[in-house]
Amino acid sequence: MSKRVAITGNEAVAQAMRQINPDVVAAYPITPQTEIVQIFSTFVADGNVDTEFVTVESEHSAMSATIGASAAGARAMTATSSQGLALMWEMLYIAAGLRLPIVAPVVNRALSAPINIHCDHSDTMGARDSGWVQIYSENAQEAYDNLIQAVRIAEHADVQIPAMVCMDGFIVSHGMENAELLDDHVVRSFVGQRTPRHSLLDVDNPATFGALDFADWYFEHRRQLADAQTYVKGVVLDVAKEFAKISGRNYGLFESYRLDDAELAVVVLNSAAGTAKAVVDDLRQQGMKAGLLKIRLFRPFPHDEIVAALAGKKAIAVLDRADGLSTMGGPVFVDVRSAMYDAPGPKMVNYIYGLGGRDVDTEQIAGVYWDLARIAETGKVTSPVTYLGVRE
Amino acid sequence: MAQMLEIRWHGRGGQGAKTAAILLGEAASSVGKYIQAFPEYGPERMGAPVLAFNRISDEPVRVHCHVSNPRIVVVLDPTLIGKNDVTSGVPEDGIYLVNTNLTPAEMRAKLKVKGGKVYTVDATQISIDTIGRAIPNTPMMGALLRATGLMSLEEFVADTRHKLEMKFRSKPEVIGGNIKAIERAYQEVQSE
């Protein structure tokens, strides 16, 4: 029987890791992720898990040790935030290129400079082309559920790609809210054991990992990685179906909230989606046909499904909690608008919001919908990219 | 949507505003409410003004923004009044609960509010008497229950005792002192 508890996002994720009981965890502390590893290390010390816990001197080493463990056949995890993820950079690509199904919670935090410990998505958005699966979570419940599902997604025979599960720093990681945790044995049987196709420790079937791969084969191996990405969507949906059976909670590639008959849509991910749902309800009561699309699977990008869900809308605003600094909007906007290029075209605008933990409230999000209403009525976009809630 | 209760805690670093919000959230959750409890994370220094927040509702809490219009304001340190705007965003019928040895009428004059309700309790003295040091957060929760009827004292004490027992296994005297502080403040809180 699952029970509803009051829990922070970090605590919920640490509990999920305890229940997953990975073979190896190598991690380095960084705010706001520190608690996850700190709590998990108490599980190790108390003998609640069988995990080999590797303390390392940096995030680069954390990812390196995780890669080594995963190549050896272990179920390996790490966790990080912000500068920590940035320091893992070259190893992220290696984890994906070696097709190692590592799973890592990432607590979203701004990147320096200026130094800032609070939430935005610059860290994981920067890793969006690394080859990792990226799953975003609105609240503690979703972070917990997504982490458990990520193990099955990453390790699936058709996928074999590392996955990061993202949640908003402080807002979700440190905020206490309600979540339902599953029983330990339910999670353990759901995630099962990892059965690697190749591993360093399988001496009867020796394999080489990380071999030199010049112009003769590199391209083909990268092409295989791209091909594997196309299987992720289906696996995500299959795993979600199975997860619904043990939890009663349903997940898709994204969540559509009052979107079907909506004329005005906002696209957003992570915790601001909850705030936006309250706004949608409020505006619906006022007669506005408002709807929301919350992206869950951002990498690989479920473009066909998102286009189908947004087709026919009059105006769409994409909210980005990271700035691409390209002067043409944030990363989510660029992807959504590119995907929509061949669809009968709604007007699309972008809002960069919440950088460095700047609060985004219901009033601001309602303002976005009113902007959309004006755009739908006039057919004119005066400002394709707007910075929401910044002092100009 | 059913009405969601929003609470803002004002304190100084070290007085336990965050802990109070978390204990209250856990206790409300234990009786079936949906909750949020979170502090405002700034530079954390002993003595610096800090804020913490609760949302308590019969339905799942979805919003993830700051609490701007709290119906209830709890002030752990009366020296903050006048320096920080503890009345900011509070609706006309807001409830103020202040840790002070002043009467509610005297405190109302200091707060410069007309409507709503003002409650006072000398939580600092209660904590010195019962816990042995000035840590006003737990007695303020007892006073808050009395002022708001959020949940019964018995339910709250049962949940909080359990939490304290887990945290202070090696210091049982802390548990008894805190429970006594909660019960005494529940009795001693003054209304207008």
Explained architecture:
- The complex is a heterodimer of chains A (392) and B (192).
- In chain A, strand 13 (315-320), helix 12 and strand 14 (347-353) form a beta-alpha-beta unit.
- Chain A has 13 helices and 15 strands.
- In chain A, 41% of the residues lie in helices and 19% in strands.
- Chain A has 2 domains: 3-247, 3-Layer(aba) Sandwich (Rossmann fold); 254-388, Rossmann fold (3-Layer(aba) Sandwich), CATH 3.40.50.
- In chain A, helix 1 packs across helix 2, helix 3 runs parallel beside helix 5 and helix 7 packs across helix 9.
- With 392 residues, chain A is an alpha/beta fold.
- Chain A has helices at residues 9-20, 34-45, 59-71, 82-87, 89-97, 122-126, 140-155, 184-191, 218-247, 272-285, 303-310, 331-339, 362-378; strands at 3-8, 24-27, 52-55, 76-77, 103-108, 133-136, 163-168, 176-181, 254-257, 264-268, 290-295, 297-299, 315-320, 347-353, 385-388.
- Chain A has a 6-stranded mixed sheet, with helices on both faces. In chain A, strands 5-7-6-12 form a 4-stranded mixed sheet.
- By secondary structure, chain B is of the alpha/beta class.
- Chain B has a single domain, classed as Pyruvate-ferredoxin oxidoreductase, PFOR, domain III (Pyruvate-ferredoxin Oxidoreductase, domain 3, 3-Layer(aba) Sandwich).
- Chain B has helices at 17-30, 104-111, 123-130, 137-148, 153-167, 172-188, and strands at 5-12, 34-39, 49-57, 72-75, 95-99, 117-121.
- In chain B, strands 2-3-1-4-5-6 form a 6-stranded mixed sheet, with helices on both faces.
- In chain B, helix 1 packs across helix 4 (137-148) and helix 5 (153-167) packs antiparallel against helix 6 (172-188).
- The radius of gyration of chain B is 15 Å and the shape is globular.
- The mean pLDDT of chain B is 93.
- At the A-B interface, strand 1, strand 8 and helix 10 of A face helix 1 and strand 2 of B.
